[in-house]
Design goal:
Strand order of the largest sheet of chain A: 1-12-2-8-9
Number of strands of chain A: 12
Largest interface: A-B, 91 and 91 residues
Oligomer: homodimer
Helix content of chain A: 25-40%
Largest sheet of chain A: 5 strands, mixed
Strand content of chain A: 15-25%
CATH topology of the domain at 18-49 and 128-228 in chain A: 60s Ribosomal Protein L30, Chain: A
Shape of chain A: globular
Order of helices and strands of chain A: EHEHEHHEEEEHEEEEHEH
CATH superfamily of the domain at 18-49 and 128-228 in chain A: CofE-like
Structural class of chain A: alpha+beta
Mean pLDDT of chain A: 90
Number of helices of chain A: 7
CATH architecture of the domain at 18-49 and 128-228 in chain A: 2-Layer Sandwich
Distance between the termini of chain A: 36 Å
Low-confidence stretches of chain A: 251-259
């Protein structure tokens, strides 16, 4: 097996709302080569797709007003969270813990940073579709295969600070199955799956930052992935999860929350 | 702000048990330059330090025998988990969920892959001390500043497959505080901390793999970090955690589990 170095190449891009994914694909295609993975922030994808929402246009429901009071969140934002979340699990001051696309997700992925005052940005409506569309657009432009990761930053349980997480991927083996592979001593592996998508999201997040860096795209070059049309699920059913399985009976899931 | 590309450089190394951190530092120093971050797998650090344990030498206690039966884990491994864990939270078949060094951690970080048959490898006894020692040894050899991350792979709640996590860091600003930094529209940031350590661990895990790749070291070059002697805590108190705070009352922590 040949192991080579990987390059993470940051792309500067100042997005305008509602320009469409084609515009984003043009920027990626200027820098990407066949075999690359383009990691793109979910915020920029959503910006392009028209996911920017004016908070003053949102009319909070009674449920949103209750949540707003309980967790000290503006009522309009609480209403968006109610609409966007697949399930609401609880919260602390300023944050509501939700399930969204089968992921544990603060505020249903809605963010008010790096958007104009008085606005919020939602997650892409269908991240898998966005990832596929973006990849097809880029592949057509560069005439070669690329992978796409739509990424976000995320706090993880008991960890300090955010790291990267993948919302959707397209075009490559995002979950690498190592079943049957021998370890150094020839014993078969037990941790058989590697989540390349989350690792790519975290690697790229080193360059993207959280502030006004204007780096919403990172090209990953040199990673030896398998390109494929296959789709990869990045989440597991709570019942099959070590964490939630271990805490069984202490954490309740509604039917709606099953990914 | 100057943004440059990052390189991830894999280092092949076949570790022998009990050779000491000096031997590991020699390998890193051969490839690292001033300003680099060396990400090193916790398993290799532990190997060097003598963390390999022969399971036949371990006498299981009654508690270990109970856990062994409950979670279908060999009794000797269950005994090591009881000894190594700061707290045992629950489990599923083959895995016990523990707290270790303030982290959520399957089987207290003990692993039986990539170790000889009949052996298990523990986490480094004092990862912070190991990271500091390793860094000092490397810095002396290359006569310049480097950062060190001790990393492991980890399943995350509701995610499929493993990604990287940092156990300890030394020599650089591992948690980047963005408080007061403006976003694109000049508004102050709300997600104010970035866990560079976990992102570096995940980035490096792209090259390290889980099988017989023999890449336990990855050099990260070009990341603009602040080098410092300051120590950084990578974990938060469960009470201040969005996830555990949100699930308050549904998850119980013993006093021993507070990081």
């Amino acid at each position: 097996m040949h192991i080579q170095k990987i390059e993470l190449i940051p792309i500067r891009y100042k997005v305008e709302p509602n320009v469409g994914l084609s515009s984003l694909a043009n920027v990626i295609a200027k820098y990407a080569k066949a075999g690359d993975i383009a990691v793109v922030s979910s915020k920029v994808v959503s910006y392009c797709e028209g996911g920017l929402v004016k908070l003053a246009d949102i009319k909070p429901s009674n449920r949103a007003l209750r949540l707003s009071k309980q967790y000290k969140i503006p009522p309009e934002l609480a209403e968006l969270i109610v609409r966007e979340a697949d399930d609401i699990l609880g919260g602390i001051e300023r944050f509501i813990l939700t399930l969204k696309f089968g992921m544990l997700c603060p505020n249903a992925g809605i963010d008010t940073s790096n958007v104009p005052e008085g606005y919020a940005i939602l997650y892409p409506e269908n991240p898998q579709k966005s990832a596929d569309t973006l990849r097809n657009l880029v592949e057509r432009r560069i005439d070669g295969r690329v992978g796409v990761v739509i990424s976000d930053s995320r706090i993880l349980p008991l960890r300090r600070g955010v790291c990267g997480i993948a919302i959707a991927t397209s075009g490559f083996e995002a979950i690498k199955d190592e079943r049957g592979k021998p370890d150094l001593f020839g014993k078969p592996l037990r941790n058989t799956m590697r989540n390349l998508a989350d690792m790519l999201a975290s690697a790229s997040q080193l360059l993207m930052g959280e502030a006004n860096e204007m780096i919403p795209i990172v090209i990953v070059r040199g990673l030896n992935v398998r390109f494929t049309e296959e789709k990869f699920r990045l989440t597991v059913d709570p019942k099959k999860c070590l964490y939630w399985g271990s805490l069984n009976g202490k954490v309740c899931w509604s039917d709606k929350s099953k990914p």
